[in-house]
Amino acid sequence: MFSLPTPPSEPDPRWTPAIATVSLGAAHLHSLPAKIEAAAQNGQKGLELFHDDLAHFAKKLRDQLDHGEKIRSDRDYEIDAAHAIRKLCAQKDLQILALQPFRHFEGLLDPDEHARRIHELEHWAELCRILGDNVCILIPSSFLDASQITGDRDRLVSDLREAADVTFPVRIAYEALAWGTYVNTWEQSWEIVQRANRPNLGICLDTFNIAARVWADPTSPTGRLPAHADRELSKSMERLVCDVDPDRVWMVQLADGERVDPNVPFLQTLGAPKLLSWSRNARLFPCEEERGGYLPILTVADACLRGLGYRGWVSMEVFSRTTSDAKPSVPNDHAARAAKSWQGLLHQLDSRKIG
Question: Membrane-spanning residues where (predicted)?
Answer without folding.
Answer: none
